[in-house]
Amino acid sequence: MLLVSQITVILSPAWLLFSGGQCCRCYDNSQRKRSEPRDPNAPKRPGSAYIYFSNEMRPKLKEEKPELGMAERSKHIGKTWATLEAEKKKVRWLAHGTCLSLLC
Questions:
Q1: How much is the pTM?
Q2: SS3 for 8-39, per residue?
């Protein structure tokens, strides 16, 4: 009984001869999609409520607990955000004027 790896070793040369040296289309760089460069003047998407919350909390936490490193501060902010009620999260987002009418 042959293993898959053994079958692959046997069939690889035959497949390359059959396909003209290419295994599949993914190796053909001419068919690869290229993303267009972004317009540097395009408007940015609004930040999430968590981003605004963390931007507010980070300097306060740095003053209160200067011994914490950046990772510990981020963990603390994340835990605080997780315990925050949904209504308070929504109010924070509305306070910054970034709530899209479709979402609220």
A1: 0.51
A2: HHHHHHHHHHHCCCCCCHHHCHHHCCCCCCCC
